[in-house]
Amino acid sequence: MTALIPSARLTRDPAVLVLEDGTRYTGRAYGARGETLGEVVFATGMTGYQETITDPSYAGQIVLQTAPHIGNTGVNDEDPESRRIWVAGYVVRDPSRMVSNWRANRSLDDALVEDGIVGISGIDTRAVTRRIRSSGSMRGGVFSGEAAELDADEQLRRVREAPGMAGRNLSAEVSVTEVEVTPATAERIGNLAVLDLGVKKSTIDNLAARGFDVHVFPQSATIDEIRAIEPVAAFYSNGPGDPAASDQHVELLRAVLGDGLPFFGICFGNQLLGRALGFGTYKLPFGHRGINQPVLDKTTGRVEITSQNHGFAVDAPLDQVVDSPNGFGRVEVSHIGLNDNVVEGLRALDIPAFSVQYHPEAASGPHDANYLFDRFREMVLATQALRQAQGPATAAQGQNDAQDSTQEDNNA
């Protein structure tokens, strides 16, 4: 039976979105009332707004939805990607006045109020998006309630004094504080060490479904703590912040790679693998955020439509195999973004490690890249088989053939 839930908090209370360049957009309060500051970014997905706002990668960001009508399916208790809403603020054009979905148990604006998320509705989101595309992501603030009555100059001052995203390490704000274990839901392979930099529930579920006992570690984990569980592999999750400000996580990953553990990283994990291998990272003008980003898999020649959420990227050569500046052997860019030629994946050729910049676990879709979890599983099994047959010292030498075999199976 379809649930019909009124959005009782839709009012005409004034609110304003202020960008650091002085641009102002006047609308209506949405969600909690008050003041919030952050980096203003836009997300292009027409669906999956509940998964978006509960993605820890959006911590510190005011998210604008480019789709004009948001909230019509409400929210439920099954779809959140984490324990709370993480966006710093929320901007929509036309919030639904009625929730109509059999799975919904409350409205989106009710959920925003519960988690204290200040939002704004009723503004020209297309105009804001065009400004960000022209000028780049910038700091902003949403002011409603008493904060909406502040002097315009005071509002702008607060926005300009807010910290930018560059140079920020936000992992500690979103990570678990103690190890959490999710048992394998398929034939067991072994323990997997996951560094929680902002991990999503669907990622854990996908890894458990591939036979891993998933041990989610706090972002402060040490190599000795990871070694203590005798892992068969390691994984770095997505997460918010600037990869250049995560030296601790890079050093940990170098130790993981030095131990010969198979490694898979997504999103922030891709950027940190790039740094661990010796490449740099840089901030994109307005980033990639949405569920319709085309990516070329250079190995298979296939184009995948992917879910993405990142404002930084790896600086590595797109069309050649190069030696890792940090001594981890040969490396190639495995995936390329077709919109702007951004590095979307890395593959190490002499150690068992690869990563992608996008989200193969995307719960709300698309699912084109979900096979990467199978590729990871097969890489771990192949590495285990090589070590049993040849010993640890020579196992890494054969991992490239194992990855090639896995990719051929995926093509078939």
From TrEMBL:
- Return the annotated region ranges for Disordered: 390-412
Do you know which HAMAP family this protein is assigned to? CPSase_S_chain (MF_01209)
Q: Quaternary arrangement and interactors, per the entry?
A: Composed of two chains; the small (or glutamine) chain promotes the hydrolysis of glutamine to ammonia, which is used by the large (or ammonia) chain to synthesize carbamoyl phosphate. Tetramer of heterodimers (alpha,beta)4.
PANTHER family given for it?
CARBAMOYL-PHOSPHATE SYNTHASE SMALL CHAIN, MULTIFUNCTIONAL TRYPTOPHAN BIOSYNTHESIS PROTEIN-RELATED
Q: Where is the active site?
A: 267 (nucleophile), 359, 361
Taxonomic path: Bacteria, Bacillati, Actinomycetota, Actinomycetes, Micrococcales
Enzyme Commission code(s) on record: 6.3.5.5
Supply the name of the protein: Carbamoyl phosphate synthase small chain
Q: Which gene encodes it?
A: carA
Q: Where is this region: CPSase?
A: 1-188
Residue ranges annotated as compositionally biased, kind Low complexity, are 390-399
The entry assigns this protein to a family as follows: Belongs to the CarA family.
* Stretches of the chain forming a coiled coil according to its record: none
Under the heading Pfam families, the entry gives: CPSase_sm_chain, GATase
Superkingdom of this protein's organism = Bacteria
